[in-house]
Amino acid sequence: MANRFSWSRLTKQQLGRYAEYFVMMEFTLHGFDVYSAEVDDKGIDFVVRKNPAVYYDIQVKSVRGLNYIFMRKDKFRPSPNLLLAIVLFSDGREPQLYLVPSTVWSEPNTLFVSRDYAGKKSQPEWGVNLTQKNLPLLATFAFDSRVDGL
Questions:
Q1: Which of 75, 60, 73, 66 is nearest to 127 (CA)?
Q2: What string of H, E and C letters represents the secondary structure of 29-74?
Q3: Distances (CA, A) of 41 to 16, 18, 78, 86, 140
């Protein structure tokens, strides 16, 4: 049997689907109701709520190792109820899960960047620079330390 955490054997689509279900189950374990989206055309993969008055839209991004990930600004509009779940996959290790409030992009830094590409073909985007240097900044967004505060 192959190593359980051999993420490199999965296609990009399989890894993305695994990440979405993984995040949904983690929210469920923390007592949230989870509602999956039928179509992901608005930059939302699913919705969670802990009580009837408060809900959160969740966008999931999966990444193998340290890399750059981004969300198009026309689909991912920062607001207090929009969260980014980042699932970091490294072969031989369990997935690492982070929960980032979209409002962090109101003050971009070396980890959370804003790119507008004025006069270029690329669409404006919010990005996450996953580098060895930025990992300590990302650590403050570890899922388990963030989810109970919601």
A1: 73
A2: HCCCEEEECCCCCCCCCEEEEEECCEEEEEEEEEEECCCEEEEECC
A3: 16, 19, 16, 19, 29
Beta bridge partners of 59: 84
The pLDDT tens digits of the residues spanning 68-84 come to 999 999 999 999 999 99
* pLDDT, tens only, 107-142: 999 999 999 988 888 899 999 999 999 999 999 999
Give the contacts of 1 (CB within 8 A, at least 6 positions apart). none
Domains of the chain by start residue, with CATH: 7-147 (3.40.1350.10)
Cα–Cα distance between 98 and 107 in angstroms, integer?
19
Neighbours of 32 (CB within 10 A): 20
Give the span between the Cα atoms of 136 and 117, in whole angstroms.
28
Please check whether residue 95 is in contact with residue 87, taking contact to mean a CB–CB distance below 8 angstroms.
yes
What is the residue type of 24? M
